[in-house]
Amino acid sequence: MAKGSGTASCSARAIIALMVVSVLVLQSYHVQASTYIVGDSLKWAFNVVDWPKGKHFKAGDVLVFNYNPSFHNVVVVDSGGYNSCKTPAGHCEGNMKIAVTAV
User: Fold this and answer.
1) What is the pTM for the complete model shown?
2) Could you tell me if 77 and 88 lie in one domain?
3) What are phi and psi of 55, to 5 degrees?
4) Are residues 22 and 5 in the same domain?
5) Domain match, 91 and 47 both
6) Where is the Phytocyanin domain (predicted)?
């Protein structure tokens, strides 16, 4: 009987160790995420189309859009909508659009 309880105890320690490692991995992933203010000091405004250039976005990053909702909006579109500027009440024509790719 003593041998059986030792095996269970070893398994329990292995499970706890695996849980601790999993939590550490998840926390390190979260710590590596970045927050970006879209447009930087210019905020979400006209001519921000080049804002993403030179930035390397990762899954988990947060993009913050600061804007007055009385005048502007943020709409997710596919590549067709982006290229044709077919958005509901947007300022797409004034290059108030960005394309972001996360790896």
Assistant:
1) 0.63
2) yes
3) -100, 145
4) yes
5) yes
6) 34-103
The amino acid present at 80, given as its one-letter code, is G
Band of residue 85 on the pLDDT scale cut at 50, 70, 90: confident
Average pLDDT over residues 40-69: 90
Domain span holding position 50: 33-103
Report the domain count for the chain.
Answer: 2
**Same domain, yes or no: 44 and 82:** yes
Give me the DSSP letters along the chain: -HHHHHHHHHHHHHHHHHHHHHHHHHHHHHHH--EEETTGGG-S-TT-TTTTTT--B-TT-EEE----TTT-------HHHHHHT--TT--GGGT------B-
